[in-house]
Structure formats: structure tokens, C-alpha cells
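Morning F.,

Quick status update on the modeling queue. The single chain you submitted on Monday has been processed. Sequence for confirmation:
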Amino acid sequence: MGTLQQEAAPTPGAPPVEGTLGSAGSLRALAGFFVSGVLLSFLGAILPAWQHHISSEYGVVGLYFLGLIGGLLSSVGFAPRLLERKGVGWTLAFACAVAGSGFLYLAFVSPPVSAWWRIAGMAILGFAAGLLHTAMFQAVSPMYRHDPAATVNLAGILFGLGCLAVALIVSGAFYAYTAAALQAWIAVIPALFGWMYLKTPFPPRPVPHHPAVRDLFSELRSPAAVLLALLLFFQLGNEWAVAGWLTLFLTQRLGISPASSLLMLALYWLALLIGRVAAQWVLPRVRHGRLLVSSAAGSILGCLILLSTDNRFGAVSGILLLGAAFAPIYPLLVEKIGHRFPYFHPGFYNGIFSFAIAGGLLAPGTLGYFASQWGVSVVMELPLAGSIVVFALLLLIGLEARLAPR
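C-alpha cells below.
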């Protein structure tokens, strides 16, 4: 999967080849990354509407995130079988239907209903996201082989737009609608995408088999694989810890209103989005190793600013710096893994790297326990520690690359 295949140039005037950037099926499947962004960023935006900005039940918030992760993991065995039996289009539409149903279910179990019902609702959203990801990666893999750079860039932009859209919707309607109404409106997004996928023909394609578990242990013999997997783990943990808990940190630590804190969350997603688009212009002009180290250093500074500030200007400055610093790290890391391990595919994560990605999403969940023990300031202390670890791992990876046999 990781080996790029050369494809013949299309004849002038011929219809687009399935799998290229011009084919309708591939582009519509790629658009699902917008829905993925909506699903995975929803919890960080809805917490103030669930009144968690005026409570200290941080353990419950952590359980919401663990419910989301549990739903994602529960789809792992189910999604490939569904894809093989029903095909890409049906699976995409079904995933969107489950997502829309999950949002509607959450609309009926908003506070003061017991939090356990909402934890179950987050598991439904996680399950929908897992189904969606499996079908999307299957559908866009030909596009990735045809033009990997454009595919990864478009997917990242669409995912970021989905995250940004949720934050803007909730912030703009925070005082106009109840939490239930907000979630009902958000349910319209996956419903529209599901209808589109029902009407889109996708050619049948064999479902690839993932590597065996024993391949994971063989990768543990490679120091480079272990270091890169740890880097992936901590960097994703840093990004999602901030995205999931930023609104609570701003309202409880700095006294910022919920609507304003949601706008600042949107600013974080916007900085990440613009930073990743700008990184594509910067990459050919700057040494990648230097850019990685500079970004890691910038993320440390951004966390320090947010921890030390006591006003809105400092919060905005820290958020912008943090988003801009985080932006190039993940794309550069994927590129570095792809160069060192040619079998790696950014859709079908293999072996040790799949464990690192899933583990990185645990950070927002574990923050619930830490915040209940040491207070909400730990929300920025954990990403600060994680950014320091990322900086150290980058130095170790550079040293390993120098010492590795050519």
C-alpha cells in the first residue's frame, strides 16, 4: 500500500479516471473528512453547552472522551466486514446515518439527564467515525496512489474545516439555542453527506488485509520505528488535549465567557488549518528537521503563555502560537515515517504506528482524572510536558538518523 504506483496519463477529453483528483467518487469520499472533523471535535465544542464550564466534574468529561475512543475501537472488527459485504457507498452512508442518529440521541439526553447516557452517545459517535474512516480510506486509496501529496493536503484541510465549523456553529448559536437544539442542527451535517453517498456510485474494490499482530513486535526491534511511534503518540496527544479542554480552561482559569471561549477554540482550529496550508509553501524552502524542532519549541512557548497569562490578549496570543506551532508537525512526521518505512500508508496505519495513533487520542480522556486531582491548570501542563517530550524525541531521532547504517 505504501508503494506509489505510476498511472498512465489520461487521454485528453476522456472522463476522469477513478481514483484521480478529478473523479467524482474519489472527491466525494474525500469530503467525508469534513464529517470526521465534525465528529471528533464535537465534544470539545459542546462541553460549555452541557454546563461543564460551571462545574468541576472533570472525571465525567474524561469519561466522555473514553466513550468516544471506545466507540472508535469497537468499529475495528465490524467495519471491514461491513465494507466487504455492502461496499464503499453503502458503508459511508450507513456511517453518516449512525452519526446523525448519535447527535439526535445526544439531543434527548442533554443535562440534567445522567451523564452515563451521554457517554453512550459519545460511543455511538466514535463508532460512526470508525466506520467512516475505514470506508473513506478504502475509497481514496487509489487517489492517494495517483497523487499522495494532494490527497493528504485536501484531507487535512477538509478535516480542519469540519472542526472549525462545529466550533463556529456552537459559539454563534450558544445563547440563541438550547444544547438539544444545537445537537439537532449538527445532525443535519452527516445526514446530508449520507444522502450524497447513497447517490454516488463507487466501483467495487477488494478490501486490503491489515498486517498481523506479530508484525508489531518485529517493528519493536527498530529504534527508528519506536521513536517515531512515540513522537506520533505524544504529538497527537498534545493536539487533542488542547482541542478537547481549551474551552473549560479558558472559562474556569481566565473567567472568559463560554461563547468567547468557543470562538477562541475556533481560532485554534483556524490557526492549525492555515498553518498546515502555509506549511506546504514553506516545506520546499526550509530544512524539514529544522522546521520540526522550531515547531516543537514554539508549542512549548505557546503552552507557557497560556499557563502564565491572566488576560484575553495573552490567551489569544498563546492559542495562535500553539496552533501555528502544532500545524506542520503532524504532516512532517507522516512524511518522515513514509520515507523510513515505505509500507506505511496514511490511511491504513500499520503495526506499531496504529497503536501510537490510537494511544495519542487517550490524552483528553486521561486529563479528566488529572484535572480532578490537581485542578484545571493541568489541561495546559500536560501538553507542555508533552511538547517537551516531542522536542527531546526529535533530537533523539536526528541522532539516530546520523548513527544508523546507510
